[in-house]
Structure formats: structure tokens, C-alpha cells
Amino acid sequence: MFWSFFRLKYDSPSVMQGRRDVNCVTNWNVPLVWEGTFDPIVVDSIYKKLNPRIAVILFAVGKYTRFLKAFIESGEKNFMVGFRVTYYIFTDHKEEVPKVALATGRNITVLPVPSATRWQDVVLGRMKWATIAIDQQVRREADYVFMMDVDSIFYHRFGAESLSRLSAVLHRAFYKTTRAHFPYERRPESQAYIPADEGDYYYTAAVWGGYLEDMYKLVKHCHEQSEIDAKNKIEAVWQEESHLNKYLLYNKPTKVLSAEYLWSAYDKVPEDIKVVRISQLVKNYAEVRPNGGN
Ligand code: UD2
Fold it and tell me: Quick check: is 267 in a domain?
């Protein structure tokens, strides 16, 4: 009796999805999502019943407005297709926000932010502006929030399988390395400090998301931590990414997304990445940033 139930449950095609070449669960027992570990039709149909409103928070400050068109156009083809999505574009050049045809239920909201003289202030400032915008507006308009880098293109489905209380993406450069190689903040003077013997994964700050209130708690905390750093005249080694990694070490993500969810045109695609869902574009850092490359 038990075995016939077991066979029925685990032999059915929708639950036979799996991968043997990669780890599909974290050591705190939440899913680690790869192509081949979920059924897109089943996942979408579950979430479509809930009809969630999904916010994408995007910064396009200075010359980064040039990336908006391709990001949104490719997002319309691949990101949460069939769901309600609002792209919140934070920019200092609202006249450069392109007109892009959006599917039904999808919108663009443009929000002003000041220009910057240092790229570091833009990336770190994302935590501050996201905190303010959620407080003043987004809270009334969204159930889930994603934070994304704009200099990237969607190439493949990025769907409801990514939704969770807190979902973080494995950084492509470190998902095969040991924690000794993670570029965590190692100076105890910074609020983003992580001791050498701690750490699960190294997550990218270029794509991450979750329930609105969980995301609010996270961005507010990271903003406050970076303010303390600023008072102490220290900036975390990878700005907001360092604070994000510290937060996620002690507040574990409820879903981890493989590096399929943010690859990069700088790197060859390895065997275990069966699909590239978003990829960071190659850019001339010195030309596009207000204060040059590094
Ligand atoms: C990495 C991370 C990024 C962030 C940054 C911090 C990846 C793929 N990305 O990206 O998430 O942690 O390091 O060092 O690993 N932006 C502007 N105007 C500017 C500068 C930045 O709008 O002048 C915005 C824009 O949305 C951009 C994002 O900030 O996509 C990240 O900045 P970046 O692309 O210059 O940083 P990068 O490639 O080093």
C-alpha cells in the first residue's frame, strides 16, 4: 500500500522533475531552483490563481538610461509573462525613459532620483530609495518586489518559480567556489562584516526579490547599516551587495535561484547552466559610469 502510493507520487511526470548534476536544495532545506527542477505550467497555474502584483525596482541614473529599452522589451517577452508587473524606474533623466509597448496589466512608473557623481552612491543608494518608495507608494501597489540591475537582457523564462518570501540568486562567479573565496566584507569595522568561518553562498545584488514586507525589512536594514558605515567613514567592499550578503546570512532566503537567473556576457556558459534567463551586458565601465571604472 505504502509503496504503491510512493510510486504513484514520485513516478508522475510533474514530480519527476529533477537534476542529479547539481544541488537542488540548500542545507536549510529550501529549494535551489534550476531548469529541470520545476514544471513551469504547474507553477504558473498555482500563482495565477493568486494574481499577484509584481514590482520591479530598476535604477537608470546618468548614462544607464540607454539600457532601459532592451531590458523592458526583453522583460515583456520573458519576465512573469501573464502576470501583473510594474517597472518602477528610478532616474535623473525621465525624458530618456523609452516608450515600450507593454502587455495588459503591465505598467511603467517613473520616479525621480538625484544625479550622482560616484557610481558607488547609485548602487548603495538603491537601498535608501527603495525603502522610501516602498513606504510612500509601492506598498499600496505590489505584493512582490524584485530589485534588478538595468544593464541586462532577459533571454528565457523568468517566472513564478522564482517567487518566495525572500529569493536570492547565486553569483555566477562564486557558486562553485568554497566560502574562503567569497568576496564578503572582511573588515570588522564595517556593518557588513562576515567572519571568515561563516557564510552559505555569495549572492548577487543584481537580481533578488520577495514579499513586499520582507523586502522592505531587508532594504531598510541595509540602508541603515550603510548609514552607520558612512558615519564611520567606511564603505563596504561591494557596497549594497556586501550588506545584502550579510543580511541573507542571518535571515536565510526562503528560495535560492541558480546562476541561470543572472548570468553575464563576460563569461562562457558552463554545462550545468541549461538556460540563461537574464544576462548582464558587456559595457564600457569607464565610459558609462560618472566616475570611471573603479
Ligand atoms: C555589480 C553588481 C551590482 C552591484 C555592483 C556594486 C552584478 C551583475 N552586478 O555590478 O548589482 O552590486 O556590482 O559594485 O554582479 N547604476 C546606474 N547608474 C550608475 C551606476 C549604476 O543607474 O551610474 C545602476 C544600474 O541599474 C546598474 C546597477 O546600478 O545596472 C549596478 O551598477 P553597475 O552595473 O555599474 O555595477 P556592476 O556591473 O559592477
Answer: yes
- Ligand 1 atom closest to Cα of 116? 23
Give a three-class secondary structure readout of 69-123. HHHHHHHHHHECCCCEEEEEEEECCHHHCCCCCCCCCEEEEEEECCCCCCHHHHH
The share of the chain scoring above pLDDT 90, in percent, equals 88
pTM over 0.90: yes
The single residue of 141, 241, 271, 287 carrying the catalytic annotation is 241
- Tens of pLDDT, residue by residue over 174-223, are 999 999 999 999 999 999 999 999 999 999 999 999 999 999 999 999 99
- For residue 241, indicate whether it is catalytic: yes
Ligand 1 atom nearest the C-alpha of 289 is 23
In a domain? residue 80: yes
Does residue 269 sit within a domain? yes
Ligand 1 centroid–CA 123 distance in Å is 6
- The per-residue pLDDT for range 107-145, each reduced to its tens digit, is 999 999 999 999 888 999 999 999 999 999 999 999 999
3 CA to centre of ligand 1 in angstroms: 52
Domain count across the chain: 1
CATH number at residue 259: 3.90.550.10
In a domain, 62, yes or no: yes
Give the per-residue pLDDT at 291: 87
Give me the domain span that covers residue 282: 2-288
Ligand 1 atom nearest the C-alpha of 206 is 11
